[in-house]
Amino acid sequence: MSRALPNFRLLPLMFALGATLSISAQAQSLVDLYSAALGYDTTYQAAKSQFDATVAKADQAKAAILPSAGLSYSATNTNQEVVPSPARSYGTQTGTISASQPLYRPANWASYEQGKKSLSLAQAQLMQAEQDLIVRVSQAYFDVLASSDSLTFLKRQKVAVAEQLASAKRNFEVGTSTITDSREAQARYDLVIAQELAAENDLLVKSLALNQLVGQQNVKPKTLKAPAVLAPVEPADIEQWVVQSQANNPSIQQANIALEVAGLETSKAEAGHKPTLDLVGSYSAINNSSGSSTSVGDSRINVGTIGVSFTLPLFAGFSAQNRIKETLSLEDKARADLETAKRSVAQGTRTAYLGVQSGLAQVNALQAAEASSQSALEANQLGYQVGVRINIDVLNSQSQLYDTKAKLAKARYDVLVGGLKLRQAAGTLKAQDLQPINTQLSQ
């Protein structure tokens, strides 16, 4: 007795999928979603806030080389008793304004240079965060499209297997095939149902991730036009990409700035042995009410001073020497970190380049495989009709065709994202690089 075709679904999953993937008024392009993520993604916003904070901190470093001024005021009342003279009281008010200008302070100038370096460091960090956001949005965008394509092909495969199952049952009823054909088709149909449910869940998860990244609900990415045009890698020399990465990658820039800052820290430590020279000046007004300790009448004293203050460190318990040793070791560490960053970026750039080249080759191979699989399916269907092929041959051909279609679609997306990752590794990735991809999306 033949089984009825199963028609089960996970209703909660379908409702959630429908709510998340409901068709919006207009599908969004990759550029649209990247623009939305710029204003919503907390990782990028944190990097932007850190940049703003570093700009303010860099300005603070100027204070060490600029003049400083201060105002002070004090008032006292004194009760004086000198035996045998009668006791008396008098008050004193003192106001002082003072200023100083560093003339020779090597440590202060090193701190000022470090502040400027920190600004360059923040710029590199912000650029890295922007490039990372471009890649994350693009990856999430094409993950949704790849998952949607996989689900679409599984639905088509389910229809084809259902037709094959119905044909096997009819042939069995008229005695032209065995029960094995029906059971094989039934097993394949059940498998496709399970795969479809998994694909629906995967699409839901990928869609939720994209929604969260861009801060919108029910995001519907625009699909890739057919046929997709995948441009070759330019320049086609892997070493040229490595050279670009060594000059432009934000990670290397940050490590290089860290080395320069470490060198300035050594200069600050060496300044511990050096003298300091400041230009100083002050003006004080002292008002004595009812006299003072030496006089009995009101008086006012104005005092103005200007001069230089010279300080020469002589001995501080070897702290300066030990500080220099510490900073030199930290400078060696920063130099090693820079070399590590260069090697890591070079390796990452080569890996990204080879990944794109391999992806392009896979696309070409899968396009040929798709055509071959289509021909094989048609031949097996014809052979099944005339009795020279069995049902499992047709089922296997169907499975191979739709699996190839899904892999081909994903391979195209991987090439597009891989091109962005290659530019990211080279340190040249910009938001404008999304525009060529955007033009290949459906309108």
Which term fits the overall shape?
elongated
C-alpha Rg (nearest Å): 38 Å
CATH class descriptor name of the largest domain: Mainly Alpha
Characterize the biggest β-sheet: 4 strands, antiparallel
**N-to-C span:** 51 Å
CATH superfamily of the largest domain: Outer membrane efflux proteins (OEP)
Placed side by side, the strands forming the largest sheet appear as: 1-2-3-4
In total, the number of domains comes to 2
Fraction in helix: 55-70%
The number of helical elements comes to 10
Order of helices and strands: HHHEEHHHHEEHHH
Structural class: alpha+beta
- Given as residue ranges, the uncertain stretches (5+ residues, pLDDT < 50) are 1-25
Strand % is 5-15%
How many E strands?
Answer: 4
Looking at the overall shape, the CATH architecture of the largest domain is: Up-down Bundle
CATH topology of the largest domain: Outer membrane efflux proteins (OEP)
Name the average pLDDT: 89
In short:
The chain has 443 residues and is α+β, with helices and mostly antiparallel strands. The chain has helices at residues 11-20, 30-38, 42-60, 106-174, 179-214, 238-248, 250-270, 319-386, 391-426, 434-438; strands spanning 68-80, 88-104, 276-289, 299-311. A four-stranded antiparallel sheet has the order 1-2-3-4, with no helix packed on it.
Task: Write a structural description.
The structure is a single chain. The chain is an alpha+beta fold. The chain has two domains: 11-65 and 105-274 and 317-438, Outer membrane efflux proteins (OEP); 69-104 and 275-312, Outer membrane efflux proteins (OEP), CATH 2.20.200. It has ten helices and four strands. It has a four-stranded antiparallel beta sheet with strand order 1-2-3-4, with no helix packed on it. A hairpin with a 7-residue loop joins strand 1 (68-80) and strand 2. The protein is elongated and about 145 Å long. The two termini are 51 Å apart.
